[in-house]
Specification:
Number of helices of chain B: 10
Structural class of chain B: alpha/beta
CATH architecture of chain A: Orthogonal Bundle
Number of strands of chain B: 10
Structural class of chain A: mainly alpha
Helix content of chain A: over 70%
CATH topology of chain A: ABC transporter involved in vitamin B12 uptake, BtuC
CATH class of chain A: Mainly Alpha
Largest sheet of chain B: 6 strands, mixed
CATH superfamily of the largest domain in chain B: P-loop containing nucleotide triphosphate hydrolases
Strand order of the largest sheet of chain A: 1-2
Shape of chain B: globular
Order of helices and strands of chain B: EEEHEEHEHHHHEHEHEEHH
Helix content of chain B: 25-40%
Strand content of chain B: 25-35%
Shape of chain A: globular
CATH architecture of the largest domain in chain B: 3-Layer(aba) Sandwich
Oligomer: heterodimer
């Protein structure tokens, strides 16, 4: 019993991160029909920079704010130089290569300057586990899925109650029509990348106390977040969050009952299987691509 | 009106190509303040591409577009809206996953903050113009009937407060009964001072409501003149009144 609860809660913790990463992919895809494959490295940036700023002696709140700020700048600049010039035509895929390339460069730079080792990000919520139904879990791990659900809720209201939110939905639905009503489509893309990157930086800071921060921490988180976005249905914000939480839980159960080695194999097998049955993802909508 | 007044819209030698295909060749037309101009012609004759080029949806490959004297060719679509020209596109292109209210709010997206004060008045006016929308405000736009969607598209375009409203194929797929309510709305808006550039396959209707007209054929303008001249023109009668689609 206690091990089931253990896997469930730990799974929701890591699943919340997948959900947040996938939400970032959802936001970027909606506005630009392209994503930043270096998005995982935005998490790394958030986590690593927070540690670096703490090393400078800055207080935690300032370090976090600065790290998220730099993540936002990274996302906005990347959209401008690595996506916009390469996603001008429908079906163009140059942005895949350019964003992967920038991710690799960023990782190399972080390895050189931050070091090749992992460091924990201190958090008052990751010092002492709490016991729930016999399972020991850090409050930090409980916070992550709650944050993911809260953020998707906020996003829902933002997209229905504000002009900017409506405009983001309009661009996602039909870029041409959005331009016709007076929406600056490229600015919406920029804002979306800023928002996704802020979420990315925040996700990195949230997960670093649990898994430790390192220059390479973003790679697998990014890939899994993307996989989750695809199986959840990249057009649906609640869909990708549900898929993220589920994926995290499944992973932990495979981890616990089979082996850590089997985790990725089983996880990605499920991804492929789901895609075969639901090509649009579990909650996704079929998109019309205009050429 | 002063004969030498500046045109609201002036298009000179406009060309649009899609790759090797030339969709619009050397098209020149203008719309004066408060004028109602119709463009008629068959499918694929370049009418839609002309409107799209003016609206900034496609980039022209040549020629000039001026809105109240200011150069507008090649501008992004949202800039053209800001200059007072609004396009009601073919197929309505409403945001069918959002509510009727949200669509209308988005119609006012280009307005500056100070203009938003008058938004409520305009909103009420629009709902009076299209009473059926007032009953459907919380409904998802995709659930509206074809005629209601066209009304929503018109309302959305009007809320940007255009000086010129360009409408592409308003009648497409709509029942005659619906058109009998839509055309009088256009005439009323025009009487109140709104300039209209209407692209329409239903030549009889289009020429009945317009002051002037242009006939498109094979990517260029072949005939132009006052609406009554065109309606009496032998070529026009043979080509467009003889075999009416819809």
């Amino acid at each position: 019993m206690s091990s089931v609860v253990q896997y469930l809660l730990a799974g929701l913790g890591i699943g919340g991160i997948y959900a947040l990463v996938a939400l970032g992919f959802h936001i970027m895809w909606s506005s630009a029909k392209a994503v930043n494959f270096a998005h995982g490295d935005t998490l790394m940036l958030g986590a690593v920079l927070t540690i670096v700023f703490l090393d400078f002696g800055l207080p935690m709140s300032v370090a976090i704010a600065l790290a998220i700020g730099v993540s936002v700048i990274f996302g906005v600049v990347l959209e401008r130089v690595a996506i916009r010039p390469f996603a001008a035509q429908a079906r163009s895929i140059g942005w895949m290569l350019t964003t992967i390339a920038i991710g690799i460069m960023l990782e190399s730079y972080a390895t050189i300057s931050f070091g090749a080792f992992a460091r924990p990000l201190p958090s008052p919520l990751a010092e002492k586990p709490v016991i729930i139904l016999g399972a020991g879990v850090f409050p930090q791990e409980l916070l992550i899925p709650l944050a993911a659900v809260a953020i998707v809720g906020l996003l829902y209201f933002f997209q229905r109650r504000t002009q900017l939110g409506r405009a983001m939905r309009a661009v996602a639905f039909n870029r041409e029509a959005a331009g016709i009503v007076g929406i600056n489509v490229t600015r919406i893309a920029m804002i979306s990348f800023a928002l996704a990157s802020a979420l990315g930086g925040l996700s990195g800071i949230l997960v670093a106390p649990v898994i430790q921060a390192s220059a390479t921490m973003g790679l697998l988180l990014g890939i899994k977040g993307f996989a989750v976005a695809i199986i959840g249905g990249i057009t649906s914000a609640p869909g990708v969050v549900i898929a993220g939480l589920l994926y995290g839980v499944i992973e932990k159960f495979v981890d616990g009952y089979i082996s850590t080695a089997a985790r990725e194999a089983v996880g990605f097998s499920i991804v492929i299987l789901v895609l075969m049955i639901w090509p649009q993802g579990l909650f996704g909508r079929k998109e019309i691509v205009k050429v | 009106m002063n004969e030498r007044a500046q045109p609201l819209l002036e298009v000179n030698n406009l060309c649009v190509s899609y790759g090797q295909v030339e969709a619009v060749r050397d098209v020149s037309l203008k719309v004066m303040q408060g004028e109602f101009v119709s463009i008629i012609g068959n499918n694929g004759s370049g009418k839609t591409s002309t409107l799209k080029a003016i609206a900034g949806v496609v980039k022209p490959s040549g020629g000039s577009i001026r809105i109240q004297g200011a150069e507008a060719q090649g501008l992004a679509a949202h800039r053209v809206v800001g200059m007072g020209v609004s396009l009601i596109p073919e197929g309505r292109q409403i945001f069918s996953d959002q509510t009727v209210d949200d669509n209308l709010m988005l119609g006012a997206y280009s307005r500056r903050r100070r203009d938003l004060d008058s938004f409520d008045d305009d909103f009420q006016k629009i709902l009076q113009l299209f009473p059926v929308l007032a009953e459907r405000r919380r409904q998802i736009a995709g659930s509206l009937s074809g005629g209601e969607q066209q009304m929503l598209a018109l309302a959305r375009g009007l809320l940007s407060r255009p000086k010129l409203l360009m409408i592409d194929e308003m009648s497409l797929g709509l029942a005659p009964r619906v058109l009998e309510t839509l055309f009088p709305v256009l005439e009323r808006l025009n009487r109140e001072g709104l300039a209209i550039l209407l692209v329409e396959q239903l030549a009889t209707m289009a020429l009945k409501v317009a002051h002037r007209g242009y006939v498109f054929e094979n990517s260029r303008i072949t005939i132009s003149g006052s609406a009554s001249e065109l309606a009496g023109n032998k070529q026009v009668i043979e080509a467009y009144f003889g075999r009416r689609t819809n």
